[in-house]
Amino acid sequence: MNKATTDKTKQQFESVFVSPMRSYTLTALDYYDQLFSAQMDAARAYSDMAITQARTWLDVKDPDSFKKAMESQQKTASDFMERMKGDTEKVTSISKSFAEDSQKQVEETTKKAVETAKQ
Question: Is a pLDDT exceeding 80 seen at residue 96?
Fold first, then answer.
């Protein structure tokens, strides 16, 4: 093989395999970074809610403080459900974006491969 053929083959390999794989890897890393951050934020929020609620119950000393703790429990449960709903929507959005980006990359890679094969 001469140098021109080798260079063309190398360029085609880069275009059809290496570049798309690098692009997909960057997309995947971004997805996992966003997903991990969302999970860590959620875990922190849920832990904070649980600790706050535990401290509320430790302050129960009479019927009035028990009533306040029960009210706090109901509010915390409501806040927890709202937070969980928001976290679910966030993870769904992140996953949907990743799926769309991945599909777009597959389509572009397929198109490049067809064009390269025609050459």
Answer: yes
